[in-house]
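ENTRY TYPE: paired fold submission
RECORD: A
CONTENT: sequence, then C-alpha cells
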Amino acid sequence: MSVILRTIAVIAALFVAGDAGGTPPTPPNVLLVVADDAGWGDFSFVGNRSVATPALDSLAHDGAVLEQFCVQPVCSPTRAELLTGRYYPRSGVRGVSLGQERMAPDERTLANLFHDAGFVTGCFGKWHNGTQWPYHPLARGFDTFHGFTEGHWGDYFDAEMEHDGAFVQGRGYIADDVTNHAIGFIEASRRNAKPFFCYVAFNTPHSPMSVPDTAWARFRDKAIDQRGPEGDREDLTFTRAALAMVENLDTNLSRLLTTLERLDMASDTIVVFCSDNGPNSTRWCGGMRGKKGSTDDGGVRSVCCIRYPARIKPRTIVDDATGAIDILPTLAGLAGLAPPQGKPLDGVDLAPLLTDAHESIATATTLADRPIVASFGGKVSVRTTTHRLDAEGRLYDMKTDPGQLRDIAAEQPEKATRLREIAAAWRRDVLDAVPRPTEERFPVGYPGAALTELPARDGVPHGGVVRSGKAPNCSFFTNWTKADDSITWAVDVVEPGRYTAELWYTCPPADAGSTVTLSGGSGTVTGTIAPGWDPPLNTADDRVPRGHGESFSKQFRPLTLGTITLEKGPTTLMLRATDVPGASVADIRRLVLRPVK
C-alpha cells in the first residue's frame, strides 16, 4: 500500500472516529481464515500485479488492515499463537512434527473461549497442533472437525480427510472441500439460530504444488515481472503454481463471504484473514528479506485483514507492529467476551485501535515500541513498529530499509542494546523456560476419545523399514521386508483395558499373507495382512516436482488385527512380522486403537 494511500486512509479513519464505536450485535459470529505458506506479497491489494485476489482486496477495503502483522517462521508455532494468544513455547510447542507440534492440554483456545460463551464451533482444514486426545481439535473446544491433524499433506485431490473421528475421502480439490464443509457449518448455525466461531485453516499454497486445471490454465504461461531476491534464477514454475493456489484460495474466501451475504450475516460477523508464515519460495515479497523458516520480515510478516461492519470502519489502517498473539484477545474484545483466565496472555486487545480513532491514539502510543518476537531453530529476532533486531544482533530501520540491508546498531546503540536485552530475556524466560520432555510419548485411551490414531509420523522404523519421505508428516512406512524389521510407537496408556487394533495398509496381492504381531507390555494380538491392496501413488497432479523430503500418498485401507489388552502407563507398541511369504510385508500409514466398551 502506498504512503499516500495509507495517509489518506488514516485521515479518513480519524474523520469518521465519532461513528466508529457503535453498539455491537450480541453476539457476533467469527470467521477466522488462515492461509498456509502464503507470503505477504502474494496478494493484489499489496501490489502484486501477477495475481488477482478480489475477495481479500475487499476485506482490506471494507475493514482494517494490520500493516505490520507478524507471525512465526513456520506453521505450528503460529497456529498455537493464534489459538491461545500466547507465545508458542509457553504452550509447549517446539516444532512441526514428531509430537513437538502439540499444545499443552491445559491451554485455553479460541474455540474453548467461544464454546463456553454459547457459540457453536467448527474447525476445517489443517490443524497441526496434535493428533491424539487431548490434543485433537475435538478435545480443544471444537464441536466439529473436517480436515487433517498432521501438517504436511500429500494429496490435494479427493484427499483422505478426517470428519469428526471418521476417516473419509474428500471430494474434489482440498481447499474447495474444506470450504464446502465450512459453508455447511455456517448454514447449519443460521438454521439453528446459534452464533458461530468458524476456523478455516487452508493448507494452500503449501507444497506439494498441486493446482486445479482451471487455476493452472491461467498461470501456466503467465509472465511474472515482479521477482524475488533471486531475480532471473527464481523458479517461475513454482511461483506460478503458488499464485494459482492463492487465486483458488481467494475464490474460496469469496464463497465464504458470499455465504455470509446470502444468509444476511455479513454485518454481524467478524472476519479475519492471515497467513501462518512467509512464502515457501523466494518469490516477490515487497523487497523484504527472508522467506518461510526465516526470522526476518520476509519470513514472518503476513497480511492481516479484519472486517466487522458493525464496528470497524472501511479502510482502517493500523501501522503499529501487531502479531498472531493479538488475535485471541482482539476477537474476545470485539465479541464482548472476557479472555481466558489463569494464564497471562502475551497479546493485547486491538479492538480500541480498530473501532475508535480517538481511543486508538492512546492505544497506539502503548504499542509504538512494543516488541514482537519471532523464533525458530534457536534463533530469536525482535520487531517493533520502527525497527528489527535480527537473529545475529543486527539492527535495521524498517521504515526506511524494509529489505534489511544496512545495519544501524552502531548508529543507534541504545536501541540496539534495549532490543538485545529483550531478545535475551525472551530466550531465558520463554524459549528456555518451558521443560522439554526427555521422550515424546503419545496418549492412548484418553477420556472422551472414541479412538487413538497413531500415524506413521509418530512412530519409529527399525531394521530396513523407512519412511516414504524425509518429512514425517503424512508419510508412511515402507520397505518392510523381513522378520527382523519392526515399527514402534512410544505411548502412554491413560485408560487400561482392551483395544481393537486396526492397521491401515497397502500390500501387493502377490505378497499378501504375512503374519504380523502387535505387542505392548504383556498384551499381544496377531493378524494376517490380507487381502492384497496395492493402489498407485498420486504422482499425476503436481505442477512442480516434489522436494526430496516430500512423500507421495495413496489410498490405504483398514485391517482389523484383533483385540489387545494394554496396561496403564508408559509402554512401547511394537509391530513385527513373524512370517513373510512374499517379497514384502506391507506399507503402513497408521495404527488405530479403539477401546472395547
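RECORD: B
CONTENT: sequence, then C-alpha cells
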Amino acid sequence: MLRMTKTESGLVRGVAGNNARITVYKGIPFAADTSGENRWRAPQPVEPWEGVRDCYVFPPITMQKTPGEDRDAFYSKEWHVEPEIAMSEDSLALNIWTPANSTDDKLPVYAWIFGGGLTEGYSHEMEFDGEHMASRGIVVVSIAYRVNVFGFLAHPDLTRDQPDAPANFGYLDVKAGLEWIKRNIANFGGDPENITIGGQSAGGLQVMAMMASPTTEGLFQRATVQSSSGGCFPAVYPPCFFGPYRSLESCEKQGAAFLKEYLGCDTIAEARKLDAFFIRDKFVEYMEKTFHRFVQCVDGKFLPKDPTDYLINDETHRVPFLTGYTSDEVNFYPEGDTLEEMVEWGDKKLNGHGKEYIDTAIKQAGTTDVEAVRKAAMININRTSNYMIGKLFEAQGRPVYTYEFNPTMPGDDAGSFHSSDLWFSFETLANSWRPFDGHHYDVARKMCNYWSNFIKTGNPNGKDNDGTDLPYWPEYKDGHRNMNFFDEVALSESGPDEVTEFIVKINYDPYFNKD
C-alpha cells in the first residue's frame, strides 16, 4: 500500500481506509491560506513544509453558513450532520483515495467537485466518500473551493488591481486543484494523462466552466455531470439563483453595494482586514433579505465569454461526457388554485406562453383537474437540459451518455431528490440513514461500475462484479436514449414528453436556430 509519498511541497503520509487496501490522504493543501491579502485573489502557491505531513484528518470547510446548524433542514438530515465541523479560510486542500501499491501504477483518476449552489458544500461530504470507487482501481480526488461571497465577489478595486484574475475565485480554485493533480498525482499511483472531472449540482456548473475555459486545455480527458444538466444551460435558472452568466460590470456593482451596505467598507483593502466570520454572517443576512447570492460571471480572463456560447458553437474541450438527472429534481410547479391562475403564473415564467404551457399539461394529464394538471405540468430543468445536451453533443459528433435516476427512496416521501444519485454512483448507501435494501445495493453496484468504466475508458460499458456484462448503455442517439436507474437498470428508448418538448421549443430553440 502506498501509505507515504511526496508532493511538490513535501512528504505526506496517509491512513488506511475502512478497506485497508485503500490509502486515504486527507487535507493535502494545494494552495495557500486565502485570508488577509489573499482574500479575493487567485489561489497562491503552498509554502513547502519540512518532514512528513500526516494527512489523517479532513480539512476545514471553506467559509459558509454552518452546515447542519438547522437540524430540521432536509440536507442536514441527509448528509450535513456535523454542526461543529471546522471552518476556515485556510482550507484549499484535496482528499485522495488511492488503491495504488506503487507510484508506477498509472491508475485512472477521478477529480470530484462538490455542489451546493456555489454558496455552500464541501469536499468530504459523506455521500461521495471515494473508497468504493477507489476499490475498482481508480484514484479518487475531491477538491475544495471557495463559495459564496468569498469565492465569487467582484468589485471595481479587484478589476483594477488584479486584472488577470478579477473574479470567479471559486472557479480558479478548482483549476488550481486540477493543475496540482496534473503535476502530483503520479506520486499517488495515478495517471496524469487519464483524468476525468466530475461534479454534481453547482459542481456540474464547475465542470461546464472547466470544459469551456480556454485556460484549462489538457487538464482532463473526460467529464461527468450529475443532478446538474441545467448547469449546461444556466440561463434557465432564475437570476437570483444562477441565471445567465452575468457581466463583470454587473457583478462589480453587486459587490460594491454589498461592501458598502453590509460590511461598511468602501474598498477591498478595508474588507480584507475584516474577520472572515463577520463577512460570512453578513453574507447570510444579505442572502436572506435579498434572495440573491454571489455567482459566476464572464470575467474576460478565465471565461472570455458565456460558457453556453462555447457549448453551442462547439468550442468546449472535446471530451467524452456522461450526464443525467434525478426524476424529482428542482421543478417548476405552476402556482394557483384555478387553471386561470396557473396560466397567469405560466405567463410570468415563460414570457407570455402560459396558456400553451397549461394546455399542453391538460393534454398530457387527460383531465382538467387542477392537481392533475399541476403534476403533469412539472417542468424539470434538468430533464430538459439533459435532453438538449445529448442532442447537441450528438450533433457535434461527441461521445455522450445520458441517464435518468428514479429508484424508490425509503425513509420518507422525498422521491428521487436532487443529488440522491450520489449515494448510488459512489456506492455509499451504508453511510445513509435511509433503510436501503438489497435491490438498492444492486442498483448502486451497477451505477458505480458504469461510472468506474467511464472514468477508465470514456465508455461506461463493461462487467458487473459477478463477471456478467452490465446492461448495454449506448451513446445518446436520435434525441432519446437514456440509461434508466430505477428499481431496475435498463435502457430507455422513449423520447421526451410533451412538456419537455414545449420547454425546449420556448427556451432552447433560439440557441440552435439562430439566423
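NOTES ON RECORD B: Residues 438-457 form the longest helix (20 residues). Residues 22 and 265 are 49 Å apart (CA to CA).
STATUS: closed
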